[in-house]
Amino acid sequence: MSNSTASNSTSVVPNPVFQNAYYIGNNINGILYGVELVLYFISIRQLVESYKATKKRVDIFYMWFSTGLLLLVTIFVAVQAVFGEEMWIVNAGFPGGDAAYLKMYASVWYQTMGTASTVILNLLTDGLMIWRCFVIWNDARIVAFPCLLYLATLAIGTTQLYYSGLPSGNFFAGLAADLGLAYYTCSIGLNVLVTCFICGRILAFARRTKKTLGREAMRTYTSTVSIIIESALPYSLSGIAFLITYGLNSDISILFLSFYILFTCLSSQLIILRVTLGRAWTRERASQSVSTLSFTFRPTLSVYTGNTDATAINLRTMAKSNGSAVEVGKV
After folding, report:
1. What parts of the sequence cross the membrane (predicted)?
2. 300 lies in a domain?
3. Is 295 domain-assigned?
């Protein structure tokens, strides 16, 4: 993916805007990579403690998943930093300057490795988002179309890597560049679609909760933070910004690439951390929340008959309703 931005920028002579965008992007990589390291170690600590207490295999899965995310984003950050050093420092006197070096060496082997790492990172995060969408909706029909887009992304991404990795391949023009644009469009389109599904579900639940339990109860489990993390909103927004600038052949697309790839990793890590802390939606909680909301309407329909037994029943019903409301508040 790092090759893709270079491909757009080397179709014309790179100007100072591109050079500055690349430099700022590398600094952004370092800052957000530090955030990822902190989140990773916090998540691993929580997962280890959880596994010791419960022996759940899912904790082991999340450990490996988090480690894979960190490894892949590390490759991307390292590749971007090394290429910048080679272009600006090691080969500062290269004939033709930075523009000529970029055009000649943007397809070097470690750039291809960086591109492969970002494709795999995208696939892992997209898969996690589809799973979270299924968990929140608890309906396989909702994720049917996203799954098809995921398979298309996998196919196009693999083909893109093949053609860009050929000895005679040129990631800057021709079929490889067209496949790159198709891949990003499909992948980011999938992100936006799943994000809309998740946000829509949470907001719809918020409206129903407001009617039955009040505004304060709604804030408990439909907060802004919950929506942003569960829907991986920064991932989708940065992807849209990158796709627009990349499609317009803009020199600043490489800057948005840094945000996009790092938020690809951070969004998944935040979801995993939220799951390990017990604050994320689960299939059980999603189904219980809907049934509990329906139950809270029932006491309002009861009619006082003046009978002592009926009054006792009503009181017990109200107690159950209050208990259910508290249970929903924990979601």
Report:
1. 30-48, 60-83, 108-131, 143-162, 182-204, 225-248, 254-277
2. no
3. no
Residue 52 lies in a domain: yes
- For the chain, the maximum distance between any two Cα atoms, rounded to a whole number of angstroms, is 98
CATH of the domain at 242: 1.20.1070
Give the residue numbers spanning the domain of 204: 16-285
Q: Is residue 328 part of a domain?
A: no
Q: Amino acid identity, residue 189?
A: G
33-47, 162-176, 184-198, 317-331: which has the highest mean pLDDT? 33-47
Alpha-carbon torsion angle 93, 94, 99, 100, nearest 10: 160
Q: CB neighbours of 261 closer than 8 A, spacing ≥ 6?
A: 1, 73, 76, 118, 121
d(CA 206, CA 162): 46
CB 267 within 8 A of CB 239: no
Closest C-alpha among 232, 268, 253, 262 to residue 31 = 262
263 vs 265: CA distance, rounded Å: 5
Q: Which helix (H) or strand (E) segment is 49 a member of?
A: helix 16-54
- Number of structural domains (the chain) is 1
Q: Is 24 exposed, middle or buried (0-12, 13-18, 19+ CB in 10 A)?
A: middle
pLDDT in tens, 154-198: 999 988 888 776 665 555 556 777 788 899 899 999 989 998 998
What are the distances in angstroms from CA 325 to CA 13, 123, 212, 270?
A: 63, 38, 9, 28
Cα–Cα nearest to 129, from 143, 116, 119, 117: 143
Task: Please give the full DSSP string across 206-244, using - where no structure is assigned.
Answer: HHHHHHHH-HHHHHHHS-HHHHHHHTTHHHHHHHHHHHH
